[in-house]
Design a protein that fits this description.
The protein is α+β, with helices and mostly antiparallel strands and about 180 residues long. The chain has one domain. It is about 20% helix and about 25% strand. It has five helices and 13 strands. The strands form five sheets. It has a four-stranded antiparallel sheet. Strand 3 and strand 4 form a beta hairpin. The structure holds zinc ion. The site of zinc ion (ZN) has 10 residues, from helix 1.
């Protein structure tokens, strides 16, 4: 384990924050590392962070250079996608591929994922019906982490959509009676 990595949280999920993710700028409002793919660089060079919407530019960059959507560093041999059961079934994601460790850390860090009752605002995608069915993340009762080697990026209705190659392995995280997330399979 990396001695510089930060740990937090409780429960049975390994919650070590990878160094590259911990080194990301911290969003002052949420006190969370800002995901690399959610940085929208304006024409004047300033950066606008939108936690709910992935930057199309970063989506292309991530695909071309095989970078993790959370920390922005090069992906490993196995790459992971995180989403609900429907997304896993279709292997279709609005969020980019990630390092396994970054995905696991996000299960704890992101309040949208870590606690069931936390609802993410979805105003940005509600009126768009040009998207593949199932990928829009109405809050699922469980999260599936899929391991694969490859993916494709396509633009659908103006949004970058990631299509994962078949999964070699999946891990399942579900909410307990206290609405906390635990690995179940
Ligand atoms: Zn990463």
């Amino acid at each position: 384990m990396d001695p510089d990595a930060t740990t937090r949280g409780t429960g049975d999920v390994n919650r070590t924050i990878p160094e590259a993710l911990a080194a990301r700028p911290i969003d002052p409002k949420r006190n969370l590392p800002t995901p690399w793919a959610n940085e929208h660089v304006r024409d004047d060079g300033t950066v606008d962070v939108n936690f709910a919407v992935v930057s199309n530019e970063r989506a292309f960059e991530c695909t071309e250079l095989r970078l993790c959507g959370l920390c922005g560093e090069g992906l490993d041999y196995w790459i992971t996608f995180l989403g609900g059961p429907k997304a896993a079934e279709l292997r279709t994601y609005g969020d980019p591929p990630m390092h396994e460790a970054c995905a696991i850390a996000s299960l704890d860090l992101c309040p949208h994922l870590a606690v069931k009752r936390h609802k993410r605002r979805q105003v940005h995608r509600q009126d768009d019906d040009g998207l593949p069915p199932g990928w829009i993340d109405t809050k699922p009762d469980r999260w599936i982490l899929g391991y694969t080697r490859d993916f494709k990026l396509k633009m659908v209705g103006g949004y970058a959509i990631f299509f994962a190659a078949p999964f070699k392995q999946v891990r399942v995280f579900a909410y307990d009676d206290n609405e906390q997330l635990h690995e179940v399979a």
